[in-house]
């Protein structure tokens, strides 16, 4: 190997003054108000919603976790209450109104089928929604 090839092999790792310029071979360091991007690993500001390098939205830590069991129990007691607990007020009110309609439909017997189906689905939905909120897949 010639001396020119040896010299050119260390040039990318060091700057003109011989110091490491951080372009290759070194890991990025983060400051106290910085974090690593969940996708590309570059250092970004802690409060950044989107990484400026790769454009991926950063997952925020949820400060309030929802208890799926409590959400299901609330919907068990009153259809729609579990959705309200999860922060989905409109959805919860929709379930409550639907159950009132189902009570009226009991007079024509179809409510005997639709009432328990809506009730069971409300319990299931409240539980699954609380799990998704805790996983960060949806926001309350």
UniProtKB/TrEMBL annotation:
Residues 9-30 have a biased composition (Low complexity). Keywords: Membrane, Transmembrane, Transmembrane helix. It comes from the Archaea. Residues 1-32 are annotated as: Disordered. The chain crosses the membrane at residues 101-124. This is TM2 domain-containing protein. It comes from Halovivax cerinus. The lineage of its organism: Archaea, Methanobacteriati, Methanobacteriota, Stenosarchaea group, Halobacteria.
